[in-house]
Structure formats: structure tokens, C-alpha cells
Amino acid sequence: MALSKVVLASPRGYCAGVDRAVDTVERALDHFGPPVYVRREIVHNRHVVSELTGRGAVFVETEEDVPAGAVLVLSAHGVAPEVHRRSAERSLQVLDATCPLVTKVHSEARRFAARGYTIVLVGHAGHEEVIGTMGEAPEAIRLVESIADVEALDVPDPERVAYITQTTLSVDETIEIIAALRRRYPAAIGPKRDDICYATQNRQNAVKRLATVVDLVLVIGSQNSSNSNRLVEVTRDLGVPAYLIDDEGDIDPAWLEGVETVGITSGASAPETLVDRVIAHFRAMGVAHVEAQDAEPEDVHFTLPTELRRAVSS
Length: 314
Fold this sequence. Notes:
The chain is an alpha/beta fold. The chain has helices spanning 16-32, 46-55, 81-89, 100-114, 128-134, 147-151, 171-184, 198-211, 226-237, 272-284, 306-313; strands at 5-8, 36-39, 57-60, 71-74, 93-96, 118-122, 141-144, 161-165, 216-220, 242-245, 261-266, 289-292. The protein has 3 domains: 5-14 and 197-292, 3-Layer(aba) Sandwich (Cobalt-precorrin-4 Transmethylase, domain 1); 16-99 and 302-313, Rossmann fold; 101-184, Cobalt-precorrin-4 Transmethylase, domain 1 (3-Layer(aba) Sandwich). β2 (36-39), α2 and β3 (57-60) form a beta-alpha-beta unit. α4 (100-114) packs parallel to α5 (128-134). The model has no long low-confidence stretch (mean pLDDT 97).
């Protein structure tokens, strides 16, 4: 059996929040000129970061590394309120590229905290989105990553528990964790709408469909991309081998032994140019048949940050 076909998941790649964040840096460079400073990685993809660096973006660990008065773009993952405070103290011109869906979670955290709830945040420790969200109400928020964490919770009032979630989690796993939370705290309340973003849900649904028709799935995305890692996990949970790759250079020929059909998808922070490169890699190997799965198109669009639109219009 020889590799003969590549199937592309749909939808895949950039979500509206990532598109907005990358566009913010590009427009800022066009308008203000380099250097434009960016706090942490604008999105979790090393190719995107490298390309923007080449255009004059300077990525820093903290706002305190930015010269006073300079332009600073905040990443799509969101930040804690103290970042805004320190930026103001340095008179930085802040362009907030936080994904609006992450901003929604921040608003939920503030609202539940103001009402006196203990907030259970389902997410991954150390992820930038989680750090930013916890900064909204650090005294009120408890982070859980698993059902075992739920069972170990100790809250002051079991009747006043609320939950929120990181936007890039495994949909199925999150449902199980929230179910465990509700069993333990029947009075627990959550947001009116699911926190896991539409793109995360759509890409996980797409890779589930893909896994039914291929022998192997390659997920294009960087190692620190939460949603890309979840795509690998979802596929493996279905019994189909899956690997996370940054680009075609990461493909191990041993993975392809005995494989007839390869599926390709990409995380929400991976540009379509990387998919094109992987396809070209397989075409160079002699694979002529490349097809894309049918799917409903995504039509979500977020406007650029208000601060940038004002600067450009003036």
C-alpha cells in the first residue's frame, strides 16, 4: 500500500480572532512604522511571529520592556488588568488585539466575582489566556484542569459557584469536567453562551469527520498552540494516529509507512500558506489526488481594535 491521497479538513486554519490580531500588527507597522512592540507572541505560531519580526515587530515578554511612549500591541490571548495599568504608567500607545471571545470570558469573570461567586475556571495552567483571565479576579477564581481537580475543590459557599472556560479546550473533555462540577455543586451556574470559541468547536468537528476517512492526520500548528494540540488529542481519541507539525520539515517518513490516505488540518493560528507547503511536499512525493471536505463556510469577522481605527482615521 502506497500513499495516494491527501484529504483536507474544512474548516481549518485562521479564526477571526487570529486574523484580527495579525492584521492589527501589520496595520500598525504600516501606519506607525517599525518598531511596533508586541507583548508575547501575537498568536501561538512561530512562522507568524518570524514573519512579523522580519517586518519590524519586536516581541517582548512584558510591557516593562517597551520604551516609554512606544506602540504596544497586546496579543490575542488577553492580559490581566495590571498589564493595562503598567502600560498606562509608561504612556504606551496600546492596541488591544485580545480576541473578543476572550474578552467575553474576562467580562464573565468580573461579573461573577462582583456577585460574590467562587469562579471555577476550566483551563490549562500557565496558558496566557488563563493567566489573563485569572488576573481579573485572582481571589475568586479556582483553576481546574481535570475531573480530579473538581473533586479536590474546596469552596467557601457551595451554593455560590460559577464556572467559565478557556476558549481553546477540547469540547468533549470540557463537557465532562463541567458535568462533574455540576454533580458536585448542583447550584453552579455558567455563562449564557458556551465559552469555547466557534472556531475551536468547528475545527474539532471537522477533524472528527476527517478521521473517519483517512489513515493518518497531520495537524499544522506550533507546540504551544492549545487548540492545535487539542486537534491531535481529539483525533487520537478516535483511534487514528495524529501528529503536530510546524511545517513540512517536521514530517517523519516513518509515519507514512503503510498509509494510503493522509488527512491535513491546521490550528486556528496557522496560516494557509503552511497548508500549501505541506500539500506541495506530498505532491513532490508523487501524490496527485488532493481533495477538501465539504463544510459550511465561516463568516465571523471582528473589527480592528478601536485604538488602531482611530489612529488610522486621524
